[in-house]
Write a structure and sequence with these properties.
GO molecular function: transcription coregulator activity
Keywords: Activator, Nucleus, Transcription, Transcription regulation
Pfam families: Med24_N
Number of helices: 33
Radius of gyration: 31 Å
Protein name: Mediator of RNA polymerase II transcription subunit 24
Distance between the termini: 40 Å
Subcellular location: Nucleus
Helix content: 55-70%
Length: about 700
């Protein structure tokens, strides 16, 4: 828990300060509940598990501090005397704080009490779900129906997520959903209860997958075990951000006789009746093929719009899951159509999105429609943005998607990026909304575009205090995908600036110093955290392949790299700045090679070549802002090493660089030599001794 030599109390305090900032500025609804549960349940529980003893009280926000201290006391992190003492300090501080009227206060303040009360309810629901569903399905239905009312579901899910019970929660609902797929001959009431249990469990699982990620739903793979219906449907048929579905996938095309009977049932002149032997999972799998038949009939004039309205009313009128499955396929289908072919498919989505105004609906219909509409809004968001279509989803009781469609329409994304950076630079911190916009821009423009344009903004800044602030802000923004940003920054952007003499002027102080600082921070952060494995974000997005870095920086030192050829073509003194083979072998030898570090790893390769470039620049006869930049970069490395980051990126620096560095007045000291040399190696000690002797 030392977090890179940060004292534990300070580390805990910073975590909670971040929690309170997130809590205060989160949009009302699901996001706020997540922050509340994380702050008051997850964090105290984590400290308790780590046996961390800390005293902390953030000076923020109403009685949130009291709730936080009480939870710490429950977990044994604070004594009663400490709680009393901190609360007394808090009361004294609040006397001088501006007070809002009680009415205003109630509207903007989160309520941790609700989350804390929801925690034991989660445990009770899990126990209820363990019972035999066949014995008392009506009682179980009553419990689930009440879970759907108001914000109960999101409260319970947030509490479950914060206490590590969400996976268990989801597993029990998958088991319930699977139980309802085995329907036999039964009375009308039993058929109705089974339909409702199927529908509620299906909707809840969709909501969990969209809110907390589909990985929460997936079971541990066990050979021979049958995969539950919902898992199969979610993996193959459910639209998610970044997942492109194939509308012709076999999962969408079941037994044709089942499709025909479903079409006949939907096209019935009266409201769709519940069939006692209806297997709802089969209906969900058949609905896509049924929708295609209905669309074709509409396109060819066989069905009028009034018939389509009646069919969509039948789809969403009893079991909302059918509408969700229908829209899931329509979303995949619309992506494959031309601009002039989309109208009827989008119109059908629009028809399915709203509730059915009828008295002849099953129990808890209003509550189920609220969740259905929220699920459909998430499902359709990408395709609606791409097709510039607007669909109004019912808003009563539904949290709007807080960070969706944040980008202003019809504005170039580069303008949005520069404006957003200027705003956060002026303000001095990055709020949640800005982070989501930056994330969207990173996703849309790609890592190189994103990093390159933000570095350009940094290099335009001439006010020293603003450049230092910009470094801290950019470092926090780059944490959206630090590994990939670092590869681009160190492997492409810096070499481009250092080898192109027309760009050297941009590296002058203060922006050059700031960029050097940012580059070192990113390098150290990525190197200390990476294990040679792709992050989940990397797997989601298409990234530069490892081979791209190997072709840019080949593994064989006998083969001149692109980078070194580039250097030699840009320098008068080609003997100094050509490939490693043009110099003695020792000139590129570094501690990392003696430690046999894996050079197939892109980050290791990029670092090794950056330090080769630095060594070449230091040894060249041409001085300028680029040589000054290299000095700042090395000074920042030394400063960070003195702060406890020893034994990281400097192992990639060629040993010959040491003798070049000590020629720079600011770095000509035994302390610097010892800091930048690997003294665990015999060769490192020899190099250090020789350099110190030459001082």
């Amino acid at each position: 828990m030392q977090g890179g030599h940060i004292p534990t109390p300070l580390f805990v305090l910073e975590i909670w300060k971040a929690c309170f900032v997130g809590l205060i500025e989160s949009p009302e609804g699901t996001e706020e509940l997540k922050w509340t549960a994380f702050t008051f349940l997850k964090v105290p529980g984590t400290w308790e598990q780590q046996s961390t003893r800390s005293s902390s009280g953030s000076q923020e926000n109403c009685d949130c501090t009291k709730f936080l201290l009480q939870e710490c006391s429950k977990q044994g992190l604070l004594s009663e005397a400490s709680v009393t003492n901190l609360m007394a300090k808090r009361a004294a501080d609040r006397e001088h704080a501006p007070q809002l009227k009680s009415g205003e206060n109630a509207n903007i303040q989160p309520n941790p009490g609700l989350i804390l009360r929801a925690e034991p309810t989660v445990t009770n629901i899990l126990k209820t779900m363990d019972a035999d569903h066949s014995k008392s399905p009506e009682g179980l239905l009553g419990v689930l129906g009440h879970m759907l009312s108001g914000k109960s579901l999101d409260l319970l899910l947030a509490a479950a997520a914060a206490t590590g019970k969400l996976k268990s929660f989801a597993r029990k609902f998958i088991n319930l959903n699977e139980f309802t797929t085995h329907g036999n001959e039964e009375l009308a009431k039993a058929a109705s209860v089974r339909a409702l249990l199927f529908d509620i469990s299906f909707l809840m699982l969709c909501h969990v997958a969209q809110t907390y990620g589909s990985e929460v739903i997936l079971s541990e793979s066990s050979t021979g075990a049958q995969v539950p219906f919902f898992e199969t449907w979610m993996q193959t048929c459910m639209p998610e951000e970044g997942k492109i579905l194939n509308p012709d996938h076999p999962c969408f095309w079941p037994d044709s006789t089942k499709v025909e009977s479903l079409v006949a049932l939907l096209n019935n002149s009266s409201e769709m009746k519940l069939v006692s032997v209806m297997k709802w999972h089969e209906a969900c799998l058949s609905i896509s093929a049924a929708i295609l038949e209905i669309l074709n009939a509409w396109e060819n004039g066989v069905l009028a719009f009034e018939s389509i309205q009646k069919i969509t009313d039948n789809i969403k009128g009893k079991v909302c899951s059918l509408a969700v499955c229908a829209v899931a396929w329509l979303v995949a289908h619309v992506r494959m159509l031309g601009l002039d072919e989309r109208e009827k498919s989008l119109q059908m989505i629009r028809q399915l999105a709203g509730p059915l105004y009828s008295e002849n609906t099953l129990q808890f219909y209003n509550e189920r429609v609220v969740i259905m509409s929220s699920i459909l809004e998430h499902m359709c968001a990408d395709v609606l943005q791409q097709t510039a279509t607007q669909i109004k989803f019912p808003s009563t009781g539904v949290d709007t998607m807080p960070y969706w469609n944040l980008l202003p329409p019809k504005r170039p994304i580069k303008e949005v990026l520069t404006d957003m950076f200027a705003k956060v630079l002026e303000k001095g911190w990055v709020d949640s909304r800005s982070i989501h916009i930056f994330d969207t821009l990173l996703h849309m423009g790609g890592v190189y575009w994103f990093c390159n344009n933000l570095v350009k903004e940094l290099l335009k800044e001439t006010r020293k205090e603003h450049t230092l602030r910009a470094v801290e802000l950019l470092y926090s923004i780059f944490c959206l995908d630090m590994q990939q940003v670092t590869l681009v920054l160190l492997g492409h952007i810096l070499p481009g600036l250092l080898t192109d003499s027309s760009k050297w002027h941009s590296l002058m102080d203060p922006p050059g110093t700031a960029l050097a600082k940012l580059a070192v921070w990113c390098a150290l952060s990525s190197y200390s955290s990476h294990k040679g494995q792709a992050s989940s974000r990397q797997k989601k997005r298409h990234r530069e392949d490892i081979e791209d870095y190997i072709s840019l920086f080949p593994l064989d030192d006998m083969q001149p790299s692109k980078l070194m050829r580039l250097l030699s073509s840009n320098e008068e003194d080609a003997n100094i700045l050509s490939s490693p083979t043009d110099r003695s072998m020792s000139s590129s030898l570094s501690a990392s090679q003696l430690h046999t570090v894996n050079m197939r790893d892109p980050l290791n390769r990029v670092l090794a070549n950056l330090f080769l470039l630095i060594s070449s620049i230091l040894g060249s006869r041409t001085a300028g802002p680029h040589t000054q930049f290299v000095q700042w970069f090395m000074e920042e490395c030394v400063d960070c090493l003195e702060q406890g980051s020893r034994g990281s990126i400097l192992q990639f620096m060629p040993f010959t660089t040491v003798s070049e560095l000590v020629k720079v007045s600011a770095m000509s000291s035994p302390k610097v030599v010892l800091a930048i040399t690997d003294l665990s190696l015999s060769l490192g000690r020899q190099v250090a001794a020789k350099a110190i002797a030459a001082l």
